[in-house]
Amino acid sequence: MSTHFELKNILFLDIETIPQYEYWNDVPEETQHLFELKTQYQRKDEFTPKQFYQRAGIWAEFGKIICISVGYFVEKENNLQLRVTSFAGSNENEILLDFKDLLDTHFNHKKYLLCAHNGKEFDFPYIARRMVINGITLPKKLNLFGKKPWEVPHLDTMELWKFGDFKHYTSLSLLTHVLGVPSPKQDIDGSEVANVYFKDKDITRIIRYCENDTIAVAQLLLKFNNLPILEKKNILQVSLQLENS
Fold first, then answer.
1. Is the predicted pLDDT of residue 242 greater than 50, yes or no?
2. pLDDT above 70 covers what percent of the chain?
3. Furthest-apart CA pair in the chain: how many Å?
4. Mean pLDDT within 123-127
5. Is residue 17 a contact partner of residue 191, using CB atoms and an 8 Å limit?
6. For residue 2, what pLDDT is reported?
7. pLDDT band for position 78 (cuts 50, 70, 90)
8. Residue 73 — φ and ψ, nearest 5°?
9. Which CATH architecture has domain 7-20+62-237?
């Protein structure tokens, strides 16, 4: 497979989300009722809304973003590097504004694409919805109104792997395994993020987990283009120091 995209024009990303409240009893009564209605199909008779609330982070209406990790390729002395950084913490509005500033300042040109695993179904719409909820004007890369499908500046490694099979779902863990990419799930998985945040208060651990997913997505795109994956020495955690594009 060849994706025919310039690797240096792709911003890879992953997000971590949690329920807006740690405890069900802290959720406003009207929100509890709306959550009950929203999740009725998924819960059936197996779970009460209270029992199911631990999964609330997967819905932008009931969750919030605590980490956005991004990665981008650069070439130094004929050597391909992946540079990774994160926006994270308890202030979602600040995280979203910083991410928007990154897109508006450095990845606004039409040549740039966003890439995530299952990004079209989760990461991209989730970020956009949370921006709207937080009163933040959408950056061009997330404002899809009026765009034709081929004009949407998004890549999705899960969609690429489907090869047109719309029934097929492949997790990031499975895809990295079959393609020989180092597993991103070396510590925690998505179901544990809320506990690590609320109970352990360990945002650093969540950042590391989110960045590992971002790295894995970038490595997958290399594999899709029949290119060797990067060695660890060529993957750098950095603060943002980009030239204006």
1. no
2. 96
3. 60
4. 98
5. no
6. 59
7. confident
8. -85, 140
9. 2-Layer Sandwich (3.30)
Contact call for residues 43 and 220 (beta carbons, < 8 A)? no
pLDDT digits (tens, 9 = 90+) for 155-183: 999 999 998 887 778 999 999 999 999 88
Single-letter amino acid, residue 151: E
Q: What is the secondary structure of the chain as a DSSP string?
A: ------GGGEEEEEEEEEES-SSGGGS-HHHHHHHHHHTHHHHTTT--HHHHGGGGGGSTTTEEEEEEEEEEEEEETTEEEEEEEEEESS-HHHHHHHHHHHHHHHS-STT-EEEETTTTTTHHHHHHHHHHHTT-PPPTTT--TT--GGG--EEEHHHHHHTT-TT----HHHHHHHHTPPPS-SS--GGGHHHHHHTS--HHHHHHHHHHHHHHHHHHHHHHTT-PPPPGGGEEE--------
The CA-to-CA distance between both ends of the chain, in Å, stands at 29
Of 86, 77, 116, 114, nearest to 216 by C-alpha is 116
Provide the CA 196 distance to its chain's centre, in angstroms.
Answer: 18
For 161, left (φ over 0), alpha (ψ -120 to 50), or beta?
A: alpha
